[in-house]
Amino acid sequence: MSMKKNFSVVAIKYGQTTLPERMVFADRPESEVRIPISLTLYLIETEGRKILVDAGCDTMPRYVLKHHISPAEALRRYGVEPGEITDLILTHAHHDHVDAAHYFTGATVHIQQDEYLRAKEKGYLPDTLTVLPFEEERELSGVRVVRFGGHTSGSSIVTFTHEGKEYVICGDECYHRRCLDEQRPTGNSRNPARSRAFVETYGTDAYTVLLAHDGEILPDGNGALKII
Question: What is the CATH number of domain 8-215?
């Protein structure tokens, strides 16, 4: 399904940090060289919906943060109040993707069932939130959330088509653009075969992949970058 003309996608960056190379690339299992990454959310607006892909985090234990502000504040600076978010997609239940979910009390939360159980167990999803778990996929006005299961057992990707182009918001199935360009799967994977399948499938000219931790997005600070 191709999106209508009022469709938009904006990357909202609220901080940056570094990851050890062994987490970024499976073929560098011993390397502690640090690679810059961003902390980025994606805001999709379509058909009266404001869909936020991942909630971000207010803290990131054991990591040194730069330019960090609350994800809620980053949205406000762009001009969107947290209460305006109608749908919150959580790609998986790791801290840096779900910690700030509590801000989005007006949203319906969409998360794969295995990840939902993990997020509830860790206290990331308060009872005040409306949560609709799914098993394999969910569709929201042409935006599809699909379980992929490389990074974690229920980790998901978000896909949509716009003006004939296929887009994928990849969560943590891939950390770095080089993983795609060089067909090198991530080193931080529960299912290495699925992680390899991700870079082999989506690391082609047929897809535009949007990374949650793309170090090339606004490398010198925070802000918003219009994708579509």
Answer: 3.60.15.10
Q: How far apart are CA 167 and CA 44, in angstroms?
A: 12
pLDDT of residue 62: 92
- What would the pLDDT profile of 110-155 be if each residue is shown by its tens digit? 999 999 999 999 999 999 999 999 999 999 999 999 999 999 999 9
Nearest in space to 158 (alpha carbons), one of 134, 128, 176, 182: 134
Q: What is the pLDDT of residues 180-212, one digit of tens each?
A: 999 999 999 999 999 999 999 999 999 999 999
Q: Where are the beta strands (DSSP E) in 47-129?
A: 49-53, 87-90, 108-112
Beta carbons within 8 Å of 43's beta carbon, 6+ residues apart: 9, 10, 12, 50, 51, 52, 53, 75, 78, 80
Alpha-helical (H) ranges within 25-133 are 71-78, 95-98, 113-121
Reduced to 3 states (helix: H, G, I; strand: E, B; else coil), residue 117 is helix
Question: Strands 87-90, 108-112: parallel, antiparallel or unpaired by DSSP?
Answer: parallel
Backbone conformation region of residue 110, classed left if phi is above 0, alpha if psi is from -120 to 50, else beta: beta
Q: Give the mean pLDDT of 30-45.
A: 97
